[in-house]
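step: validate -> pass
step: tokenize input -> pass
step: predict -> running
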Amino acid sequence: MKLNSGIDSSDDGSLSQSLSSATLRIVILTLLVCIASSSIVFTLTSGLQFLTFLEKVASKFDLYCPEISIVDGEATIKEKQPYFVETPQDLNLTAIIDTRKNPDPNPLSHLKKDNTGMLLLRHSLVIKNREEISTIKLNNFPDMILNSQTISSEIGEYRSSIILSIFLGSLIYFGIGKIVQTLISALSIQLVTRYLAIPFSFGKGFKLASFVLVPCTLLDIILISLNLLGDSQLYIYLGCYAAVLFVLVKDLTASSIQQKVS
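step: predict -> pass
step: emit ->
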């Protein structure tokens, strides 16, 4: 597939025709700017909020959970066991610590069938998500002591790495999302132009669809930055995208039909 194929050198002054005749370099730059802008804003808003949440959880760790020592792949605590960690009721999460050598009854019996749970045993960490149960061996963990001070210290030490990981993850997420969105829109444009017997290649449709991202991404960034209409931001973004796409396709078909008539 050649994105630069089917470029029409004629210019009838329509916006859609002009955008679809842009160079491949400008199209790629447009996509990169939209992806990077969304990633940066996401990192500076949701990413920092997540980091703040981690710091808050770490600061309150001692209030809900005893100090946990992991040495040579064995976890121990200095409290009576099994120890049931207090968790918010709305999370529907059961967290239990039982690091005894021969626990009785079986600690897994404390995990309810239909909820999510975490169970720290002497040699493993068991995570239950409804019917699915996964086990992580502690011998893969380095020696550590878990309490509010040590966890907060680790978060502070790796703060920059956490933010960078969030940014890179968001780059991948928005990169895939916006490119797939553009490909689907380009396919939609081609279906419309074929139906109307308008000569318009997939490459030109991709170029035109890539520019649809610009006003929608800008609006999304403004709403997120100002924390406006939080619950409706996705619907507003999609609505704006559909409206801009409709306007450009309408402009394209109108100009093409006018060229045929003239």
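step: describe -> Residues 228 and 255 are 37 Å apart (CA to CA).
step: cleanup -> pass
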